Every structure is written in structure tokens, then in C-alpha cells.
Amino acid sequence: MANQRLSHMPKQKIKKKALDPCPVCGTELYLTDEYTQRVGLVDDYDSVIGWLCPHCKTEYDSDDHIRKFLGENGIRGEA
After folding, report:
1. Taking the chain, what is the end-to-end CA distance rounded to the nearest angstrom?
2. pLDDT category, 38, cuts 50, 70, 90?
3. Domain membership of residue 23 as a residue range
4. What is the pTM of this model?
5. Reduced to 3 states, what is the DSSP secondary structure of residue 12?
């Protein structure tokens, strides 16, 4: 008897958990497909200007460049 192909059986796709680590502390920020742990930063006109990691308190701009490193004032730019 020849081997039967199982192509008629539906294949189950394994969902791969999306990775979204903080670039500084490495803590996973992914929660679900709709939610994240990133904290949005807005200006006085309610425009989004960046985000904050709730674990290490590092602030980023909209392009993921560091604005405040580990919640400290005065450190700006890229390393």
C-alpha cells in the first residue's frame, strides 16, 4: 500500500508571538495584536511626539530615537 498524502487535511498555522523589545532595557513591550505597553507622549496640541518605555522610563521620538535616557534630563541625541 502506497503512502497517502495528507494534503486534504487542513494545516494549522502556529501563531508566532510578535517581538517588540525596548531598545534600551530589552523588556518585551508586546501585549496583543491591538495593545502594547508603550506609553504615548503627546504635546500641548494632542499630537503624538513619541513614546515612553514604562519599565526603564526612556523616552523616544516618533522615529525611535532616544530623547531622554532612563528618565534623565539633558541627554539628547544618538550614541
Report:
1. 66
2. very high
3. 18-69
4. 0.64
5. coil
